[in-house]
Amino acid sequence: EVQLVESGGGLVQPGGSLRLSCAASGFSLSDYWMQWVRQSPGKGLVWVSRLSGDGSNAAYADSVKGRFTISRDNAKNTLYLEMNSLRDEDTAVYYCGRGCFSDSGGCVGYWGQGTLVTVSS
Amino acid sequence: DIQMTQSPSSLSASIGDRVTITCRASQSVRTYLNWYQQKPGKAPNLLIWTTSNLHSGVPSRFSGSGSGTDFTLTITSLQPEDSATYYCQQSYTTPITFGQGTRLEIK
Lengths: 121, 107
Known about the structure:
- The complex is a heterodimer of chains A (121) and B (107).
- Chain A is mainly β and 121 residues long.
- Chain A has no helices and eleven strands.
- Chain A has strands at residues 3-7, 10-12, 18-25, 34-39, 45-51, 58-60, 68-73, 78-83, 92-99, 108-111, 115-119.
- In chain A, strands 2, 4, 5, 6, 9, 10 and 11 form a seven-stranded mixed sheet that branches.
- The termini of chain A are far apart.
- Chain B is mainly β.
- In chain B, 0% of the residues lie in helices and 50% in strands.
- Chain B has strands at 4-7, 10-13, 19-25, 33-38, 45-49, 53-54, 62-67, 70-75, 84-90, 97-98, 102-106.
- In chain B, the strands form two sheets. In chain B, strands 2, 4, 5, 6, 9, 10 and 11 form a seven-stranded mixed sheet that branches. In chain B, strands 1-3-8-7 form a four-stranded antiparallel sheet, with no helix packed on it.
- In chain B, strand 9 (84-90) and strand 10 (97-98) form a beta hairpin.
- The A-B interface holds A 35, 37, 44-47, 50, 59-62, 95, 100, 104-114 and B 1, 32, 34, 36, 38, 43-46, 49-50, 55, 87, 89-92, 94-101.
């Protein structure tokens, strides 16, 4: 059974940093594209970043480019999102997701339960 | 960036009704259009991938169609558990973008 479990969210001050983790089970991270999608309170879904199975191809939304870094540890089967220079507008539930199929870099077939990041002084 | 616009933003329908939600892209996304359902406090769930392919376990009353810039999600014979917010998503190019969502309420 495919499972994704996010962790690492919490309260952080503006300008601070946080690292989110997404522990995967039921499949090998190296076989799939992985993504981060966020949702601010009461708002819609916003794509943040994605990473290819071999880790060679990463992409970011303009709003986080240069501040966030997506990475993976295939030995731990875990995806990460390193978030620096956090802003109030980064406050959201962050979801990790697995590509629908092994070559799918777009659609998200499986989602974690989400982890809440609150940026506030 | 490709803008995705859904209509309507919200709707109310009765059990057994046929419901159609539309999604328009600001430029062609070919058939790289996906649909998700999200219930309050829960993660989204994939319904349809690449315009018209039903995800595993999704009831057959859900269907999708379209190509290029205009797409539809149709729910035939609406059920109580279909009350949710629905999002379209283009996966043709980065940045990947979502529609603003359509909130479906059951009368």
